[in-house]
Each structure stands twice: as C-alpha cells, then as structure tokens.
Design a protein that fits this description.
By secondary structure, this protein is an alpha/beta fold. Among the domains are: 107 residues, Urease, subunit C, domain 1; 142 residues, Roll (Diaminopimelate Epimerase, Chain A, domain 1). Helices cover 29% and strands 21% of the residues. The strands form 4 sheets. Strands 8-15-16-17-18-19-20-21 form an 8-stranded parallel sheet. The chain is globular. The model has no long low-confidence stretch (mean pLDDT 94).
C-alpha cells in the first residue's frame, strides 16, 4: 500500500466553480480524503512504510489535462523532422529546407527530408500553393512536407517519381477504402494536367501510408521515442490523451502493448483506424475495452477536409471560388461503415469541419441513435456549426471534441474565404447554452502542445500568435473555468477514462501545480504566462 500525502496546496476540485481545499491524502494513487486542515497520517505508519509527503508550497493545483484529440505517433516517428510551423515567409521556408538539404548532402547520408507545418494562409510573401518547382534545387533526395492542418502534402519531383504517384497501388487504395477516382481528385494539377506537387485529402492519405511503409524506424527506436514523447506531454501537464490516427500504420496500439503500462505516466484511448476495423472485429475488441490507462476508442472516420486547405465541406462555396469542399464518403457507404461498427459495439469518432459536414454528421447520428442509444458518438473538430446542427446534437448525446487553439490560424482563412459566416465558427458559448459541453484538445502536432494557448483562444475568441489581437466572434467566448473543465473533466470523460478529471474522493490523484492562480488574474494575457510547475500521475510526481 502506497500512501501519498499532499499538503499546503490550493486544490481546485472542479466540482463547483471556486471550490478548493488545501490538503489531500491518496492511497495507491486514488484520493481518500480532502481537507482544509492538515490530515493526520500517523495511523498509516504501522500499516506501510511506503509513505510519501509532498509539500506543494501553496501553489494552485488543478486536475491534469487530457488532450482529447492528438496524433500520437507522428511526433514519435518524426521526432527529428523539419518544422516549418513558425515561419511566416515562404522565403524562410525555402531557406530552412536548404539548410537541412546541405547538411544531409555534406554527411553523405541516405536520408529523406520529412516534416512540415507549412501554412500558405499565413505566408506574407506568397498566397498560392507551393509546387515541386519551388524545390527543384533540392532534387537529389526525396522531400515530403505535410501542411499544418495535415490535409495537404507537398512533394518534390524526386519524391513524386519515387512514389510513382500517377500509378497508385490498387491494393493499398482498397485497404484504405479509397476509390481510384477520389485518389486522383486529390492531386492538384496545372493547366496542362500535370501534378504540381500538392496532394490533398485521399491522395495525401495514400502517400502518407506509402511513406510509412518505405521509411520505417526500427521497433526499439519507436519504443524509446514513445517514452520521450510521453515526457513532452507530461511537461505540458497532460497525463491522458485520445489518439486519433487515421491509419493503422500510424496507431500506437501495437506499441503501447509492448511497454509495461505501469511505468508510463499517460492514459491513452486509441481510436480504431478504418483500415483496421475488420481486424478489431475479428479479435472481439470493442469501444471501452481496456484498463484505466489503455482503452479502445471509436472508429475514426475522416469525413471532410479542413478550412485551411479549403476542403472542409460547406453549404455555400468558399468566397472568390466555386469550391464547397469535399466529402470523403458517399452517404450510403458511410452509413454502412457506421452501422457495421455499431453492430460490433464499436463507437464512432468522426472528423467534420465544414458547416455542411457537421450537419451531415448530425443527421447521420440522429439515424444511428435509433440503432443504439448508448454507443459513444464523438464529433471531432466541429469548427463550423449551424443552428440546425446544434439543435439536433442537443438531444443525441454526442460528445464534441474541439480545438480552440486553431482559432489563431483560422482567423485569416475565415476573413478571406468565409466573410459574413464567421459567426458559425467555434461556437463554444452557443453549445454550452444548449447543454452541450465540448471537450478541448490541441490536435498535436498540428498545433503546439500547450493547453493554455487553447484556453486563451476560447476565452478571448481570438488568436495568440499569428492573429494576436484579432477576434473571431466574441459572443462565443467562454470563461476560464468552463474552458479548463473542457480540457480536464469533459476531455477525460469523452476519452472513456473514469474517476479522472476532478480532485475529490475516489478519483485518481492526477493533477498539476501552476505558477499562478489562473482563476484570479487581472488580465487574460496572464493565461499565456501560466506554466506547469509539477505534474502528478496516480499520486506520484512525474519527472518533467
């Protein structure tokens, strides 16, 4: 029996706004007592010699974060890749690629340039798509660069030839449930019909899968990288996640089972990639199965694209275009897939961003609720929502998982492509008024792994960096307590973890200490200055 005593803290329980206590006792990682006075622990000394006492030095303590939508294996597999996410000039992007290219050639390494984070919407010196021609001076090795929203991929000529993009492997397309037509639809071409080096949606999914097959790390390296990435999560106060990989090759499921789960300071709910659905069904695996640290989640379905790539499915065209985005599935095919999952006790985790997409999925969920009234249904992103969609979702017990941090990059896209429709974006306040309580996440590595950036964006309904000082729709802003609950209480619940997300009796002692009292700040800018000092998982302090 391990006794863990925490004294001199300011613990916010999150049961009610403003509730706090100062002392807490846990046994084997679960909270036994909370008190505003010191707790006598001498009686435990005769029963165990495993007693730890933590002095929290009057710091504020809140439940640790659950990042309810991440792509866990990307940083694991690409921990040393090029990062272009903080570059606002296309010329800087090219310069960064050039530096790495020269470094690789000077060492005579047989490496590819992998990575990404580029966003054409934020470049000040270029607004159109990059092309393979922009990379012609770096053609001795393959270059494969994902866009910031992971809905587009940019290849140089070497990579296009190596991957033989005009002749896709039909077996891989079938495995990924991608039609040959939808694959070719995702290839951007010039006026002569030649590929320009940009691949969207299903063509990007195919290329991503192909790259993972051709450019692999050995298993020992992957397992070590998993431990490193978990430490990065812990440093940001995150002790639980939902992995939302779209491909089984990118799923941590097979790797996490090979590590002793009790030495890992993370809870992981793993979405089922579509290409692995039949495998999970044949093994009798279903949503909710697992331990308090490793759970099987729902079937991940990528229904539409993104706002940044203008592939999110909209009711009306994006401004100055005839483009309404694109659905990745025909309705009957989507319905069959969902019914198949639910018939096998597998819930749904569906990506939908455009207002047409979120309405389509709300209508789909309405139909599926007649098949099963309790199966977990998650709507991922929900960046644009009509009143009609909200009114439907209100009665369907659908869990929304949103990323307020994306407001920073979407403000420019909204002002450029969705003028007059900005009020449909990130409708946090409208949802809460309708008793729909969203969970929040970072979508890491699409956005930085810092929950306080998303908290800030939800409170000011504006940007923290690229769009600092700009607001999207202030009427949809929410208070700090509501935002924190979305990053803790609701995100743990929607990730299928029980007895986590509150600091109260019978809940796990998963919590963090902060450098300031976030509930008593004078200015919202102080949210951006808030830091995690210490992280505790099951009552044990984690090295960060």
């Amino acid at each position: 029996m391990k006794v863990q005593y925490f004294k001199n803290g300011k613990f916010y329980s999150f049961l009610n706004k403003g509730d706090f206590f100062t002392h807490m006792l846990a046994i084997d990682g679960k909270i036994l007592f909370t008190s505003e006075e010191p707790i006598p622990i001498k009686r435990f000394e005769k029963r165990t010699n495993q007693i730890k006492i933590y002095d929290l030095e009057n710091k504020v303590c809140i439940p640790s974060f659950c990042d309810a939508h991440v792509h866990f294996m990307y940083p694991v597999l690409h921990i040393d890749d090029i990062d272009l996410s903080n570059l606002n000039l296309f010329t800087e992007v090219i310069k960064e690629i050039e530096q790495l290219y020269k470094k690789i050639l000077s060492k005579n390494e047989k490496k590819w340039i992998l990575g990404g984070g580029w966003d054409k919407n934020n470049w000040l010196d270029k607004k159109d798509d990059p092309t393979y021609e922009d990379l012609n001076q770096f053609n001795k090795i393959p270059i494969i660069l994902f866009s910031k929203d992971y809905h587009s991929i940019w290849l140089n000529k070497n990579a296009m030839q190596l991957l033989d993009i005009e002749n896709p492997d039909l077996k891989i397309l079938q495995k990924l449930n991608i039609s040959i037509q939808s694959y070719f639809d995702g290839i951007k071409r010039d006026s002569s019909g030649n590929p320009i080096g940009i691949f969207n949606e299903n063509s990007m999914r195919y290329i991503s899968n192909l790259v993972s097959l051709k450019y692999q790390l050995n298993e020992d390296t992957i397992l070590e990288n998993i431990k490193k990435v978990i430490k990065v999560f812990n440093k940001n106060g995150i002790t639980a996640i939902t992995d939302c990989s779209s491909l089984y090759s990118d799923s941590p499921f097979r790797y996490l089972q090979k590590l002793p789960i009790d030495i890992l300071s993370i809870r992981c709910s793993i979405s089922i990639p579509e290409d692995a659905l039949d495998q999970f069904i044949s093994l009798g695996l279903y949503t909710g199965l697992g331990s308090d640290q490793l759970k099987i989640g729902g079937l991940k379905i990528l229904y539409d694209g993104s706002l940044g790539s203008q592939t999110g499915l909209m009711l009306l065209p994006y401004d100055v275009t005839n483009n309404i985005g694109k659905a990745n599935y025909e309705y009957e095919k989507l319905l069959f897939l969902c019914q198949k999952a639910i018939s096998n006790q597998i819930g749904l985790t569906i990506h939908a961003i455009g207002d047409r997409a979120t309405l389509d999925i709300a209508n789909l969920f309405e139909k599926l609720r007649n098949q099963d009234s309790k199966i977990p249904l998650r709507l991922e992103h929900a960046q644009t929502l009509t009143d009609e969609a909200i009114s439907k979702l209100k009665y369907l017990n659908v869990k929304l998982v949103m990323q307020p941090v994306h407001i920073d990059q979407d403000i420019s896209s909204a002002h450029r492509y969705l003028k007059g429709r900005e009020n449909l974006l990130y409708r946090f306040n409208s949802l809460i008024k309708n008793n729909i309580y969203p969970a929040f996440s970072t979508d890491y590595p699409v956005a930085p792994l810092n929950p306080f950036l998303g908290i800030y964006c939800s409170v000011v309904h504006g940007g923290f960096n690229l769009s600092k000082g700009k607001k999207l729709s202030e009427s949809e802003s929410i208070d700090i307590f509501s935002s924190l609950k979305s990053y803790t209480t609701y995100s743990h619940s929607y990730s299928l973890f029980q007895n986590v997300g509150y600091l109260t009796e019978n809940y796990y002692a998963d919590f963090i200490t902060l450098n300031k009292d976030i509930f008593n700040i004078k200015d919202n800018e102080e949210i951006l200055e808030t830091k995690v000092l210490r992280t505790f998982f099951k009552g044990e302090e984690v090295e960060i």
